[in-house]
């Protein structure tokens, strides 16, 4: 089945823009849940990233009748036993801002030498009659202070392996190429090309 149109199950403008940049060259018309204001917001209450990604994509595919693409991403910090993980977006509380989450993370890691971490993204593609899941991981470390003003979320404190800059300092094309979401979407794109 050739994919010509899909709905990104997200309201996050940064995420939508990132995915559009990757999918547009493939000739795929990209819509998002912003194009369907009647859709309800899906509560991310599953215990895993995969569970949340599938839940969102299933709902949007069912309601729109179009293939839906959704993802869930977690920052997994070794010294915090994999936290914030599935709770990354609401680490500092339900209505927490990106800054609130970063501040809580830096506070939790204060004085801890082992700052190894990884971003993990699970992307779910749901058609009316089939489902596919793709994963991407980017290993790195959490810095002690924020650097850079690009990107969003934990980007100013996450330095990917092999780089001397944070995600928030890297050019978006480089970030899209090496990031967890970029890798998961590349796995998705490879699947489409097959």
TrEMBL record:
Cofactors that this protein relies on: Mg(2+)
Top-level division of the source organism's lineage: Bacteria
Assigned keywords, A-Z: Hydrolase, Magnesium, Metal-binding, Nucleotide metabolism, Nucleotide-binding
Species annotation: Gracilimonas sediminicola
Cofactor binding remark: Binds 1 Mg(2+) ion per subunit.
Any GO molecular function: dITP diphosphatase activity
One GO-annotated biological process of the protein: purine nucleoside triphosphate catabolic process
Binding site for substrate: 10-15, 73, 152-155, 175, 180-181
Protein's recorded name: dITP/XTP pyrophosphatase
């Amino acid at each position: 089945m050739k994919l010509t149109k899909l709905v990104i199950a997200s309201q996050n403008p940064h995420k939508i823009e990132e995915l559009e940049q990757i999918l547009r060259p493939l000739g795929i018309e990209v819509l998002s849940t912003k194009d369907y204001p009647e859709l309800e917001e899906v509560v991310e209450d599953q215990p895993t990233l995969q569970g949340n990604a599938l839940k969102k994509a299933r709902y949007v595919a069912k309601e729109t009748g179009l293939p839906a693409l959704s993802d869930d991403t977690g920052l997994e910090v070794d010294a915090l036993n994999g936290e914030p993980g599935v709770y990354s977006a609401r680490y500092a509380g339900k209505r927490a801002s990106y800054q609130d989450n970063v501040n809580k993370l830096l506070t939790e890691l204060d004085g801890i030498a082992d700052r190894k971490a990884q971003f993990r993204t699970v992307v779910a593609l749901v058609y009316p009659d089939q489902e596919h899941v793709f994963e991407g991981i980017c290993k790195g470390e959490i810095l002690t202070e924020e650097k850079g003003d690009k990107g969003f979320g934990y980007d100013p404190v996450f330095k990917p392996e092999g780089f001397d800059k944070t995600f928030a300092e890297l050019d978006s094309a480089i970030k899209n190429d090496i990031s967890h979401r970029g890798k998961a979407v590349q796995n998705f794109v490879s699947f489409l090309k097959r």
